[in-house]
Design a protein that fits this description.
The protein has 8 helices and 5 strands; from the N terminus they run βαβαααβαβααβα. With about 170 residues, the protein is an alpha/beta fold. The protein has one domain: P-loop containing nucleotide triphosphate hydrolases (Rossmann fold), CATH 3.40.50.300. The radius of gyration is 15 Å and the shape is globular. Pathway: Metabolic intermediate biosynthesis; chorismate biosynthesis; chorismate from D-erythrose 4-phosphate and phosphoenolpyruvate: step 5/7. One of its GO terms (biological process) is amino acid biosynthetic process.
Length: about 170
């Protein structure tokens, strides 16, 4: 079994929720890059507003590298944009990478007013779901470039997504 299992995908795809359940199932720690970011730098929306997206991405890249370097095999949930970093994508080559996909309709239900998701409110006169669709279209090729397994939104429960991941890993 690979040392780290990494969950990637767009905002609202369930990376944190599925990651936590998968980690429990495998008796591994769950490391969520967004949680580590908040612990180290404070609230993401405030950081975005005061320091900008470039500074956020640089800090996020460092956190991802630290978490993937952990000596203990873990389940790691990355922020939706972490794969924008070429260095991060390169680090994923040594991991079992799962792309949690999600439909637009499911994402719309999950993102709500997007107050805690600064990249969805970065463009005036663009609704959060319209911005989500733009971001998804830009990032989807990067997600697919890094992936060992795609778990579709048709897997509608957390347990079914975890089952699919565990079965795929056992088949390797």
């Amino acid at each position: 079994m690979p040392s780290n299992i990494v969950l990637i995908g767009p905002m609202a795809s369930g990376k944190s929720t599925v990651g936590s359940a998968l980690a429990r199932r495998l008796s591994r720690p769950h490391l969520d890059t967004d949680h580590f970011f908040v612990a180290r730098h404070g609230a993401i929306p405030v950081f975005f507003r005061t320091r900008g997206e470039a500074a956020f991405r640089a800090a996020e890249e460092k956190i991802v590298a630290e978490l993937l370097d952990s000596p203990r095999p873990s389940v790691v949930s990355l922020g939706g944009g972490a794969i924008l970093s070429a260095a991060t994508r390169q680090l994923l080559a040594d991991c079992f990478v799962v792309f949690l996909d999600v439909t637009e309709a499911q994402a719309q239900l999950r993102i709500g007013d997007a107050v805690t998701r600064p990249v969805l409110s970065s463009e005036p006169n663009v609704t959060p779901i319209e911005r989500w669709k733009q971001i998804y279209a830009e990032r989807e090729p990067l997600y697919r470039q890094c992936v060992d397994l795609v778990v579709s939104s048709a897997e509608d429960t957390v347990d079914s997504r975890v089952d699919t991941i565990v079965q795929s890993m056992a088949a390797r």
